[in-house]
Amino acid sequence: MSASDAPFDASIARDNALERKGTYLDLLRYLNTDAAIRANASWYSVLDGMGRESHDAGSSYVSQWYARNCYIFSNILSVIHPGDRVVVIMGQGHEYLLSEFARLNPHLVYINPLNYLR
Question: Which domain, by its residues, includes 57?
Answer without folding.
Answer: 6-115
